[in-house]
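1st attempt posting a full record on here, be nice pls
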Amino acid sequence: WVEQVSQNQDLSQAQYSIYDVVGNRVSSGMLSLSGAGDSVQKEFPDIASGLYMFEVVSADKRFVIRLIKQD
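the predicted structure (as tokens):
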């Protein structure tokens, strides 16, 4: 599973978390997006099929994306 995240703002040293539908965190880590239009690809092979919320938090920004993983 590969999900692309792009943002037109500086998100250097941002932390991501992935939550299942009941709010359990199933994965987390750091992202390093340094400029406008940068993108990152992450693979999450250990996560089962289903609906998830992908949250990215930096020093002064936060956004959440709904993800559906299909095998």
